[in-house]
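Box 3.1 A note on notation
Throughout this textbook, protein chains are presented in two layers. The first layer is the amino acid sequence; the second is a token string describing backbone geometry. Keep the layers aligned when reading.
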Amino acid sequence: MRQLNGLDANFLTWEDATTVGHMTSVLLLDPSTSPEPWTFDRFAALLEARIHKLPSFTEKLVEVPLGLDFPYWVRAADFDLEDHLHHVAVPGGGGREPFADLVTRIHERPLDRRRPLWECHVVEQVAGDRIALITKIHHAAIDGLSGQEILASLVDLDPDAPLAPDDEDPTERGAAVGELDPAAVVGRTMLSLLASPGRAVKAGRALARLVPVVGPALGDPLDRAEPGGETAGDLARRLGAAPRTPFNAAIGPHRRWAYSTLPLDRVKAIKNEAGVTVNDVILATVAGTVRSWLDDRDALPDRPLAAMVPLSVRSQDQTSALGNFISATVTTLATNLDDAAERLAAVKASMDQAKERHATLPADILTDVTQVTPPAIAGLAARLVASTKLADRVNLPFNLVVSNVPGPPIPLYLAGARIVDHYPVSTIVDGVGLNVTVMSVENRLGFGYVADRDLIPDLWDLADRTEPALAELADAVGVAL
């Protein structure tokens, strides 16, 4: 029995009729490398052979009565692999848009909380001869890097590797399935309630440290003011600083998903020439992409857009741990600047400041802050925000989320099939109807664009601007692609 922390539980309480809390990933596989025909049954055999290495795949959620404390993960005595595996086809011949529509329909359906919170869909004949693996896992169980750890348990460096490695310990497969002890849950809940005042004090201290550090990061990216140099009024103005765009509004239940691919070596060439990071180049590319799309619709604000950027705070001893070890910062996208090189420089300056300020915070600050509110109260607050459509009237401090999850730079094989592309499908929330998440595999960056269907009905037009935005950036810094 393993209890969720406050940050993990938030991904559950945010779920409602318009918001899902799971992450979806799309792997495109080349079956020609497999030593045997790559079939749905072959993938099922791989999962069956290795699922003992994936505890989050066999644990289900157990809620605490009345939402008085955070839920628990408990080994599911009734676990059945067949409940989580699906074999589907793409209507319309497997083209990119029908395929993306299928991914969208799969993604926007919530996971069944009566079972372990994941599912896999195998899709054949995608983009000609490719096979797609669509995997949904709840964000309450994993973050981006622990998702990579799950993938690492399923892939091999050799296409001829056996589905079940010969050198593994067979006793691992015989682990007993845990049963829920109601008395233990009640006992832990009472202890947790007794500890609530202490958690509140700890959360208050965390917020006191967070405000002077985060506040300046939401202003001018070139402002080098020391943390804590603002009044409460200054901070309040900054917290409402993000300009309104067509995708900053209350969202509905339906999504659109589109994807784009960039060669990593081109991104690195720009990085090296400009003296920035790969993440800076990705942020500047997204800035150019969104700027172009808004400008063509006469919807580009005079003030710069801002992005929320998740940051991993995993320590070395938490590399394989489940759950969420994340923080976040806010950076400018400098969309008010015409010159792409100037936008890149502004993004770098903003991210450099964010990293400096973030270094003054403890790694577990978000966990401390979220640990104080019971799920019942958090869920009520989330429903209140959604029902009042507060996002249509109040600006958040950022316009979109941009996340970059680095993957392995070497060839990987899933049941013998080579992984050729990896595209994420992330989540959106009220007020932030656009999310751009990037995953890398070998020398390719997969950009996954997720938006509310009604706020951005032409999402492909936005995604197709990714490559031109990178070319514009390369030209601006003097790199020939």
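The first strand starts at residue 2 and ends at 3. Residues 170-179, 196-239, 365-370 have pLDDT under 50 and may be disordered.
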